[in-house]
Amino acid sequence: MAPEHTSDRVLYLMRKPSFQLFHKFKRVFDRINREAGLKQQLIPYFISSHPGCEEMDMAELAAETKELNFQLEQVQDFTPTPMTVATETWYSGYHPYTLEEVFSAKTPEDKRKQNMFFFWYKAEERNNILNELRRMGRDDLIAKIYGNNARTFTNNAGRNRNFTANDSPTTRRNGRNHPSNDRAPEKQRTRNAHYDKPSTPYHKNKGRRSK
């Protein structure tokens, strides 16, 4: 399932419904699982660096998906696709329908900062995320994501994972799904964005007329 983001502002630019619809779907999904005695997994797909998405949106995504008991792996960094509204927005810096200016993360560093929030649960990303949240003044999100454990993490930069332009977030692959139960976070496999693209709004736009 592809909610793609938690920010309603970003979802509006994607022409997708509010993330509250995903919350409703998950409640129904979990209820059916319980009533039928099943252990089916709900595997959501999310995207970073979509036009209009800023680092703060990704930080809030990390907190909200953690609250939903997800540890995300099936994710993708935005890849421009010709003849789509999203790519026109990304390239020009303006939304073609409203002519409003829209931010897009384009540099490897900006993309890395957005993408890392998917992996808040990985030890190699904790210090990077904590430093960014402190810089943004979002101690509230630190508490939501890491709780009291945030104080135990060191600021030893040598332990952090280095990210280069050749280490694209779109090509991370972490193996098969892990078994889960009612208490364990739901884990998903990573999808290679270059060879296994899921259907997303900016891929489905081609040929559509504007409303």
Automatic annotation (TrEMBL):
According to the entry, every stretch annotated as the UPF0313 domain falls at 73-194
For bias type Polar residues, the affected ranges are 153-172
Basic and acidic residues bias spans: 179-197
Bilayer-spanning residue ranges: none
InterPro entries with a match to the protein in the record: rSAM_sf, UPF0313, UPF0313_C
Q: Where is this region: Disordered?
A: 153-211
Q: Where is the signal peptide?
A: none
One Pfam short name: DUF3362
User: PANTHER family, from UniProt?
Assistant: UPF0313 PROTEIN YGIQ
Annotated protein name in UniProt: Radical SAM domain protein
> Could you tell me which species this protein originates from?
gut metagenome
